Amino acid sequence: MNTLEQLSRTVSNQKHTVIAAFVPLELSLLNHKPAPDSWSILECLEHLNRYSRYYIPALAKGIAANTGIKPQQMISYTWLGIKSLDMVRPDNGKKSKTVRHMNPNNSRLGRQTLEEFLDHQTELLQLLDKAKGANLHKKAIPVEFFRLLKLRIGEALEFVVLHQERHLQQALQIKKQLPLNEAAA
């Protein structure tokens, strides 16, 4: 299985996880914070939505501009790509400081946060399919917080998927801490 197929499978699993684990929960549980300075399940998803609002259009543009011209399916990594991926890997236990505009802490969130996340997953799956004809080696995706730096298309796709996995695991940990009598809903 190549990297794009692996990423597509991961995104499909992420979408299924949200549908199975979070959609059935009451809104009060989705907004429950285990501690005042921690995020709720919906805040984890809103954080990912904020990244998707930037990266999905950037990826769509980068893939469209680099499709059909010597498709290159191997993902090779720049120092920036390696650093970015290492930072968001789910097994990296270090907490990262979130840039202010991407931090949803204390946001008022509703079920539309779940719906938007699921819509982004559908779009991401379509982009992963389109990327099969693109040059994944091309530096075409500006980094959200410092747009002068660019990631390669393949690195950016992998970054988005790993970042999602990290915060979905965080949301699943929050779910385990929900008040027991309400979590069964």
From TrEMBL:
Residues 18-171 form the DinB-like domain. InterPro entries: DinB-like, DinB/YfiT-like. Gene3D superfamilies: dinb family like domain. Transmembrane segments: none annotated. Pfam families: DinB_2. This is DinB family protein. It comes from Pontibacter ramchanderi.
